[in-house]
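User: Sequence in, structure out. Go.
Assistant: Echoing your sequence, followed by the structure tokens.
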Amino acid sequence: MTNRHASDAEYLLRNAVDALPTGELERKLEDGRPLRVKLGLDPTAPDIHLGHVVVLQKLREFQDRGHVVVLIVGDYTARVGDPSGRSAARPQLDPAEIDLNAETYQRQAFTVLDHERTEVRRNGEWLDMPAEDLFGLARTATVAQLLERDDFAKRFGEGSAITILELLYPLLQGYDSVAVRSDVELGGTDQLFNLLLARDIQQAYGVEPQVALTMPILPGTDGKRRMSKSEGNYIGVSEPAEEIFGKTMSVPDTAMPAYYELLLDREPDSSLAPVEAKRTLARELTARFAGEDAAREAEARFDRVHVRHDVPEDIEEAPLPGDDPVHLPALLAEAFGISRSEARRLLAQGGVRLEGEVVSDADLDVPADRLDGRVVQLGRRRFKRFRRAA
């Protein structure tokens, strides 16, 4: 192996967990051709979060060394739902919602990836296949193979239902690797089974098998569970600057080393107190995704609200409806862009304040006079001042 290829391999593998088969990435790099490096994302939610960024950054490293990134938007696999790490089947999504999410995913992915060096594909291009082709794909694996997956094995042992559709998911993902002829596929550590099964499927179709490269899973803002939209412990790359900054400041100190290593590619400054190291992280992440000016404003706002406990100066005003009393879940949903069920959940958890006082979930209908001209706080960082129309 040349010094350059050895150096590239060392750099690309430096924070990965698995690179299987061992030595295969180095061998492919020795070929001296641009590799096709694949990542599949199922648009089951509209936002890309920092957990996705960990893998996207690794893709960008491949791009910066002259390789081709193939970003697969799983518009068809999202209709199945990835069973990885699941204790039950995922709810079925509406195709129109998936298509909307897919557009958002692509835009947000390019906050990290180089648009000019990315090939974007939707797996509906090839997974919308005749039944005969699907039968041929189903012959490439056995039920015994699929039940080796930890999540399937656990559910099978517990007697929990596993649908035939879920069993098909790894095969469909593997066929993506056949369709785009990937040399390397990236994913989190929970994807290792799928990535290795894809090698077997590629071989069955006469395609040179890919390297399975996995990255660590970033903990969420709770510092315990994986970052996930469904868990509510995520930091989205397109969220307002104050949300990115504030959520980052809420991450436990114990998770700081993982955030620094996986997102900033360095260790925290040991000379800084933990809260200052966290500020540095929040400042850099907010500037990356929202811009330097927005990051400075977000930090100043954070200090006003959470350090000095002042109400922000620039509170946006929102109109009160003509109803009296006002149904609070409906008002919060309209003003803050959340669902009514989410509004009720926040009320039940004490996450809504009126002029600094917690609003009880018993107060679902509030007199309009009590709201007129007053500030409602949602969670830690979102404020609106409500006024009746003149």
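User: And one key feature?
Assistant: The two ends are 76 Å apart (CA to CA).
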